[in-house]
Amino acid sequence: xxxxxxxxxxxxxxxxxxxxxxxxxxxxxxxxxxxxxxxxxxxxxxxxxxxxxxxxxxxxxxxxxxxxxxxxxxxxxxxxxxxxxxxxxxxxxxxxxxxxxxxxxxxxxxxxxxxxxxxxxxxxxxxxxxxxxxxxxxxxxxxxxxxxxxxxxxxxxxxxxxxxxxxxxxxxxxxxxxxxxxxxxxxxxxxxxxxxxxxxxxxxxxxxxxxxxxxxxxxxxxxxxxxxxxxxxxxxxxxxxxxxxxxxxxxxxxxxxxxxxxxxxxxxxxxxxxxxxxxxxxxxxx
Length: 286
Prior knowledge:
CATH superfamily of the largest domain: D-amino Acid Aminotransferase, subunit A, domain 2
Shape: globular
Distance between the termini: 26 Å
Strand content: 25-35%
CATH architecture of the largest domain: Alpha-Beta Barrel
Largest sheet: 9 strands, mixed
CATH class of the largest domain: Alpha Beta
CATH topology of the largest domain: D-amino Acid Aminotransferase, Chain A, domain 2
Order of helices and strands: EEHEEHHEEEHEEEEHEHEEEH
Radius of gyration: 19 Å
């Protein structure tokens, strides 16, 4: 299969599956999600993603109907049915099904969704074009809720501007991108926004930091400004679908390209981790 879908125990194609009208995700975006990349029947960094998923659900008092172990087995069982060298693996839980009202039954059991499709990973050797936008999202950036309307808007603005991603900032202090984390290299040091309510604790970013430790690259987790972003030796964009991409353009101006050696070490480290974890030989045809 090229894609598979799951809802509350039912499996089918994304076009076949039906979701109840009163699922609270329809009215309120009342749910949380997580996503990763699959290869060779394995969900990359599955344990990390499940930990974040269950933490996000607990933050909003959402009851996941399966244990972590049961959900992990389900994801890999469904993944084994989808073709391709790599796959996009997405899952979410809505609070459940009930009459539309803002309050909810605290005993309601959530409804689990899974969506997996064949998808090639982005080539990290291809540079990105970025734009900057003011961050007007609400104060739950650290939780992967379904409320992604601002991110959809920021992503569309970037697309219309001919850019690949939008870097968000609050009064000139960089937070993250519309659907990625952003970090910088300066004078051999890896700088990244500390984990707080303004950003998602990116698992790819976390593993970039771990790669820095292995490669003896100093790490400083503190905020940095738009000016520091513009003057960085390298700008690194990371997500579960692109572990270590780099930018060569920001708001139409050239950036980065001044520390390819450190960037290359990090790129090799995180992609080798993926190859080792999944057991595949190569990601890209070159």
